[in-house]
Structures are given as structure tokens and as C-alpha cells.
Amino acid sequence: MGNKLTASETALAGVVQIRSQANQDSRGSFSRWFCQQELESFLPGQQIVQVNHSFSRQQGTVRGLHFQLPPFAEYKLVRCIAGRVFDVAVDLRANSVTFLQAVSVELSAEENNMLLIPPGCAHGFQTLTADAQLLYLHSAFYQPQAEAGFRFDDPRLKIEWPLPITSMSERDLQLPVIPQQFHGISL
Ligand SMILES: Cc1cn([C@H]2C[C@H](O)[C@@H](COP(=O)(O)OP(=O)(O)O[C@H]3O[C@@H](C)C(=O)[C@@H](O)[C@H]3O)O2)c(=O)[nH]c1=O
After folding, report:
1. Average pLDDT for 111-117
2. Which superkingdom heads the taxonomic lineage of this protein's source (predicted)?
3. Mind telling me the catalytic residues?
């Protein structure tokens, strides 16, 4: 099979950066994007059941912070297939030692890297270039009734978005801040 994917842990348990080793030759390159066997330890017993794509026109666009609630909480494997993004995962897991901490990773088509975001973590990103595209692999189906989110600028999260915000959805602008009495998502 040959291992083609290398994983590095982040400060949040289960939030893992995955890099893909491309085979280069005179024609260009070939690279593995997903392998159930290689990633089994990070996605235990999971199947990828949906693939989504987003295109963001403007540099500085922010989407997030989004997650699905149990029983539809999901693993998300996020990859930037055009341009560059500042990608963020936020730990919302009850009893996690890193509860309400955020990590960020720059994802780009050039770097060929991905971020794995496990159940109980929220995801968001800001585009660092115009015309950025993201590809998502999901372990659960989209369930509008289980969709949830928090404000990208929640004061407790202290996320330092690198650019001025140029574009956001109405829905994201109306997301709540994390309530003081929020004790986290129990999975
Ligand atoms: C997420 C999603 C949305 N939709 C619909 C709902 C809506 O009418 C339209 C656009 O959806 P949104 O505005 O939620 O798109 P967007 O704000 O880009 O949502 C995405 O944000 C990032 C941060 C994530 O992590 C993704 O999982 C997803 O939540 O597409 C689906 O049909 N399937 C899906 O899986």
C-alpha cells in the first residue's frame, strides 16, 4: 500500500494536520488524498459518507464556526484545493483539558495539507487569497436540525483572524457567542 499520508498532532487532542506526499515527475504530480487504512487510528470505525466543496470569492471571507450536535457529530477532513486559508478548530468537548481552546493551521493547495476535525470541535476559516476553494470529507450526513455554531469573534476564544473581514453569511453574523453556562458537548 505504501504510506503516503503523514499526521501531526496539534494542541487539541484529535485535531490532526495531515500531509500528503506527492509523487512528482515530468508530467506533474500524483498524490493520495484519503486512505481509510492509513487514517484508521484518527477516524476509528468511521466511513466518509459525504464530500462537500466551497468556493469563496473574496480574500478575507470568514465562514464558521460550525459543528453538528450529537448524535450527528462528525469528523471533518478539510483541504484547501485552491488558494490559501487560515483554518481553525475549536474544542467544545465537555471535560476536555483544552475546552474552549482554538488551534489554527494554514491550509493551501501548494502545501497539500489537510486538517482533521473530530466530533465536538467547531470549524471555521478565513480565506487568505481570492477564489479559495475548500473540499470537505465528512463522516456524517448533513443534518440541518443538528447544525450549530458560535460567533467567529467570540471573546473567550480570542481567535486572531489574520485579515480584515470582507465577507460573511447572514447566518454566521447571527450566531450566538458561547453562553457562560455552556459546559461543552457530551459525545
Ligand atoms: C453545510 C451544508 C450546507 N448545505 C446548504 C445550506 C445552505 O443553504 C447552503 C450554504 O450552506 P452554509 O451557509 O452553511 O455554508 P458554509 O457557511 O460554507 O458552511 C460550512 O462552513 C464551514 C466552516 C464548515 O465547517 C462546513 O462544514 C460548513 O458548515 O448549503 C447543504 O446542502 N449541505 C451541507 O452539508
Report:
1. 96
2. Bacteria
3. 66, 136
3-state secondary structure of 134: strand
Q: In this structure, which residue's CA is closest to atom 27 in ligand 1?
A: 66
Hey, what's the cell of 97? 483539558
Q: Cα-flanking dihedrals φ and ψ of residue 145, to 5°?
A: -75, -15
What is the spatial distance between Cα 124 and Cα 150, in angstroms, rounded to a whole number?
10
Question: How far does the centroid of ligand 1 lie from the alpha carbon of residue 147, in Å?
Answer: 9
Residue with cell 468556493: 55
User: Measuring CA to CA, which residue among 183, 184, 175, 181 is closest to residue 66?
Assistant: 175
From ligand 1's centre to the CA of 142, what distance in Å?
9
Query: And the C-alpha cell for 56?
Result: 469563496
Residue 123: CB within 6 Å of ligand 1? yes
Q: What is each CA distance from 63 to 83, 161, 173, in whole angstroms?
A: 15, 11, 10
Q: Considering Cα of 94, then 98, then 102, then 107, what sign does the dihedral take? A: negative
Q: What is the largest CA-CA distance in the chain?
A: 58
Would you say residue 2 has pLDDT above 70?
Answer: no
What's the rounded Cα separation, in Å, for the pair 163 and 59?
Answer: 8
pLDDT band, very low/low/confident/very high, at 21 (cuts 50, 70, 90): confident
Q: Where are the alpha helices (DSSP H) in the chain?
A: 170-173
